Amino acid sequence: MSKLTHVREDGSAHMVDVTGKNETSRTAVAEGFVKMRGDVVKQLFSAGLPKGDALPVARIAGIMGAKKTPDIIPLCHPLPLGKITVDFFELADGVRIEASVKTRGVTGVEMEALTAVSTAALTVYDMIKAVDKMAVIDGIRVLSKTGGKSGNWSVQ
What we know:
This protein has a domain at 38-145: Molybdopterin cofactor biosynthesis C (MoaC) domain (Alpha-Beta Plaits, 2-Layer Sandwich). It contains four helices and five strands. The chain has helices at 38-45, 54-67, 69-72, 110-128, and strands at 24-35, 81-91, 94-105, 136-146, 153-154.
């Protein structure tokens, strides 16, 4: 009936069997944006927000989010994450968040990178909402991945 990997013939969802796959080094990089007023960008990057220094809090939240991915995305496999980085880049109208996740395993870490970016973006939003209620989270996507059977790819 279906050739979707997470759907059985009867239409029910299941966790894909990855036990026969080869273990390889795998990485994924994702990005996302939080758009806000320019004055709020300055407060964010100068640690001048009423709630405090948001970027270190958002970095830890992103790392924690990546580690918790299989707890919040039902069919994701738990993976031994070897490295997680979350970085912030100042823009005139917001912040670009980039997360990189690395593992040595049998399945990729795209979902972990996306979850890291999403969690960091939600944390930035939480920290700035008192001064910019119109802030917007936008553009969350995977930029690149390496390793595994499907090989390497990048949006660049």
